[in-house]
Amino acid sequence: xxxxxxxxxxxxxxxxxxxxxxxxxxxxxxxxxxxxxxxxxxxxxxxxxxxxxxxxxxxxxxxxxxxxxxxxxxxxxxxxxxxxxxxxxxxxxxxxxxxxxxxxxxxxxxxxxxxxxxxxxxxxxxxxxxxxxxxxxxxxxxxxxxxxxxxxxxxxxxxxxxxxxxxxxxxxxxxxxxxxxxxxxxxxxxxxxxxxxxxxxxxxxxxxxxxxxxxxxxxxxxxxxxxxxxxxxxxxxxxxxxxxxxxxxxxxxxxxxxxxxxxxxxxxxxxxxxxxxxxxxxxxxxxxxxxxxxxxxxxxxxxxxxxxxxxxx
Length: 313
Known about the structure:
Blueprint: H1 3-10, H2 19-24, H3 28-37, E1 44-47, E2 51-52, E3 59-60, H4 65-77, E4 82-87, H5 91-98, E5 106-110, H6 114-124, E6 133-137, E7 177-182, H7 195-201, H8 205-208, E8 216-219, H9 223-237, H10 240-246, H11 252-265, E9 283-284, E10 287-288, H12 289-311
Parallel strand pairs: 1-4, 1-6, 4-5, 6-7, 7-8
Antiparallel strand pairs: 2-3, 9-10
Helix pairs in contact: 1-9, 1-12, 3-9, 4-9, 4-11, 5-11, 9-10, 9-12, 11-12
């Protein structure tokens, strides 16, 4: 089944049925992977960090951080420059994870102001190796009311830099290909979905539905899994030697290291409810690390089997 099987693994039903979202974006995972792998002198930016004010302590979610780490490690191991991007409220956890990544992965942190984001935009598009692809993973998007919302509807405007301006801004000509990865309908990239899908399939969908689109959208049951899916797909469309490099750190052991750094150093938290504030622990979207490791292992086994089949006469 190739990459379609990867889509099935990352889109399996966990907390909610994302079947309609998954079907709408079928094929975009492969298209995104091919876009990166076929671009000469690629430079990939990865935007992440979903801040939770009512967590104890106030911190970003663990989701998104691990997916960012696997994508950054895979690309850096292949020799593709990577710039990880976040904002001040999420900086400690994002920085902590980047300390586990290969040397050469750059980190950019903005303040909460639009001016800071626009200044970064200018730097990313300039220089000898400007950004060619920008990925958002588990990064909130403004909704139709212009405000970014938590899944239960809370306004996050005071906690979130407008990093969506790197993806969409009226009157600005975007110089890079954009990829969105999300699981809840309120993330950057989800703006390409028909309104009724998020409205009808996601709690509070009418209010929280993302307005910011992306050239390619990857939908997964946990956003980290979408990042894993992109690593898998890139390896499956790459030449053999490149696939080996892409997969060098694509293991449960490395994933545990990324999550440990996020939690122990960065104080990242699991999904926090209004009535049950989250605290730092080794889980993502209310699933233990061991449960996530099984999904990563399943993906790795599928990719290894697919690549082995390609080598058979």
